[in-house]
């Protein structure tokens, strides 16, 4: 199929883009990477009257570290995060582990992190990481600029608190301290499928005890989920010795317990082809436990390196 007819503008400044979006007489869509939007337009499930192409706005094509945050502009492509060195510290490691699960290289070379936030698909890796890390979404519209915490931004599948006349200019993520370990694991039917379930986790450890855990769940409800109850179950727990070999954890292991809590208290999975609710609950429980163990091993490796222990 072909898209329905639409007008097309290419603004050169953020102000021009906002002015174009502010024309309430026409239904508008913003395009940056367009990896989801163009398909939906071809299928005519989305029929914009105006497409605003922001690819010629230089100020949106910047990724910088400001104080203790990473600010990702609206034109920064997924591929920018494939190297862990692209972003300082454990946050760079987490983003690099997650990004390889996003589609395949041609998609990653065009799609953007901010575009994922705009699209708000429940299976988006970036959206769950944003919720887990308390990211901030920056927007600007006819009434000026505003910021929305990621936890308040997502409202449901493809639904957000962004107004139609607003443009997302950037997403800000907090940098993670050196005493934080990270993990990301995804389950999907094939390499090119959306995630059936995925988990992002960070563990901050002080004096051998978990002082903070953050867990983001992908495709585990109608929006990205932060597993608050599972996180609380881990506070103050001794991290223990990193395990090697195999994935099975005993039922009384704190990571396994956190997985069960996440699956049955935090998540609200929806049935889909090849994955009913019971399957997804089991997958969430297992993946949370494994991802937490990956984060624990990551933190202990950093700790050993700082001590000069390379065994």
UniProtKB/TrEMBL annotation:
<dbReference type="InterPro" id="IPR002346">
    <property type="entry name" value="Mopterin_DH_FAD-bd"/>
</dbReference>
<dbReference type="Pfam" id="PF03450">
    <property type="entry name" value="CO_deh_flav_C"/>
</dbReference>
<protein>
    <submittedName>
        <fullName>Carbon-monoxide dehydrogenase medium subunit</fullName>
    </submittedName>
</protein>
<keyword id="KW-0274">FAD</keyword>
<dbReference type="InterPro" id="IPR005107">
    <property type="entry name" value="CO_DH_flav_C"/>
</dbReference>
<keyword id="KW-0285">Flavoprotein</keyword>
<dbReference type="InterPro" id="IPR016167">
    <property type="entry name" value="FAD-bd_PCMH_sub1"/>
</dbReference>
<dbReference type="GO" id="GO:0071949">
    <property type="term" value="F:FAD binding"/>
</dbReference>
<dbReference type="InterPro" id="IPR016169">
    <property type="entry name" value="FAD-bd_PCMH_sub2"/>
</dbReference>
<feature type="domain" description="FAD-binding PCMH-type">
    <location>
        <begin position="1"/>
        <end position="178"/>
    </location>
</feature>
<dbReference type="InterPro" id="IPR036683">
    <property type="entry name" value="CO_DH_flav_C_dom_sf"/>
</dbReference>
<dbReference type="Pfam" id="PF00941">
    <property type="entry name" value="FAD_binding_5"/>
</dbReference>
<keyword id="KW-0560">Oxidoreductase</keyword>
<dbReference type="InterPro" id="IPR036318">
    <property type="entry name" value="FAD-bd_PCMH-like_sf"/>
</dbReference>
<dbReference type="GO" id="GO:0016491">
    <property type="term" value="F:oxidoreductase activity"/>
</dbReference>
<dbReference type="InterPro" id="IPR016166">
    <property type="entry name" value="FAD-bd_PCMH"/>
</dbReference>
<dbReference type="InterPro" id="IPR051312">
    <property type="entry name" value="Diverse_Substr_Oxidored"/>
</dbReference>
């Amino acid at each position: 199929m072909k898209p329905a007819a639409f007008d097309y503008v290419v603004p050169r400044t953020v102000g021009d883009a906002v002015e174009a979006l502010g024309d309430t007489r026409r239904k508008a869509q913003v395009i940056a990477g367009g990896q989801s939007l163009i398909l939906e337009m071809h299928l005519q499930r989305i029929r914009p009257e105006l497409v605003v192409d922001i690819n010629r706005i230089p100020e949106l094509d910047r990724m910088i570290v400001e104080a203790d945050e990473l600010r990702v502009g609206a034109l920064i492509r997924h591929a920018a995060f494939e190297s862990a060195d692209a972003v300082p510290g454990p946050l760079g490691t987490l983003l690099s582990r997650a990004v390889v699960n996003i589609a395949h290289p041609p998609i990653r070379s065009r799609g953007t992190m901010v575009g994922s936030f705009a699209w708000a698909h429940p299976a988006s890796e970036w959206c769950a990481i944003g919720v887990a890390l308390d990211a901030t979404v920056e927007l600007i519209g006819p009434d000026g600029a505003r910021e929305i915490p990621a936890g308040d931004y997502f409202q449901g599948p493809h639904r957000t608190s962004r107004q139609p006349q607003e443009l997302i200019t950037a997403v800000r993520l907090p940098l993670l301290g050196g005493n934080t370990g990270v993990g990301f694991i995804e389950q999907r039917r094939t390499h090119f499928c959306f995630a059936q379930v995925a988990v992002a986790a960070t563990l901050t450890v002080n004096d051998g005890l978990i002082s903070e855990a953050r867990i983001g769940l992908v495709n585990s409800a109608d929006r990205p989920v932060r597993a608050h109850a599972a996180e609380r179950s881990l506070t103050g727990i001794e991290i223990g010795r990193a395990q090697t070999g195999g994935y099975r954890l005993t039922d009384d292991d704190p990571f396994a317990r956190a997985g069960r809590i996440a699956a049955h208290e935090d998540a609200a999975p929806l049935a889909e082809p090849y994955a009913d609710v019971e399957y997804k609950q089991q997958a969430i429980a297992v993946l949370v436990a494994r991802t937490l163990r990956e984060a624990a091993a990551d933190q202990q490796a950093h700790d050993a390196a700082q001590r000069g222990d390379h065994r």
